[in-house]
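Q: Convert this sequence to structure tokens.
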Amino acid sequence: MIPAAILAAVDGTDSSWHPSLIAGLQAVDRANPQYLSALAQDDYLPTGGRLLAAFAQPLESVRYVLVGEGPYPRAASATGVCFMDGAVDVLWSDKGLSKSVNRATSLRNFIKMLLVADGTLTSGHTSGEAMVIAGTQALQSGSSSIQTLPQLQHNLSRNGFLLLNAALVFRSHVPAVRDARAWMPFLQTILAALSDRPSPPTLVLWGKIAAQLDGLTGMDRFPRLVAEHPYNLSFIENGSMQKLFGPMRLLRLSAPIPANR
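A:
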């Protein structure tokens, strides 16, 4: 039996996902009958019924599945949507990125990678004076730059990104890899639903835990891109990520949606 508190999270998702989400939770329960019942009685992030918040857009709209490691380990930050830190609103300051972005290491490096990808920054020059110039330009009156993290999330959604974590929960007393292992049957079910489409979405796997999805059944149906986790500084210079995200212009208002994946 799926605990009512866990099952209730399905209500906040797009209805196109409901059969797959329920089937995914049932798969978790079959694989580990004690896991969900114990989780329902435990303290975990995200709070507020946002366990499945990533599934807000219709299934048929998904063109990319971006998989991270797990929720941010702070209640204010964990939103149920990977890399979208709930404690961040404004992106820019006259010194470059805002203090809240700089505190969110993975998000900071993701934004810096986007700045390199769209030509605002150059490789090897992503701090100091270069960031001051980028922040000042973004804050200018009439700038075409997005100003907030919700706007970045909106642009990702418009481009068809499903923003998932390999581990849907964070618990301070449980290693992330253990929770990620428990959620693998759920992710397998979600990917099976997406693989039934004529053109399966591209999987974008960030970090070692997310890369473990490569071992799931049916993964050969998906185009895949694998990168280091964005908390690594090397992510800023990752050429495959720059190539993927550059045409999307995610840091621009009313960013165009590329015709091809």
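The chain has two domains: 4-76+155-248, 92-147.
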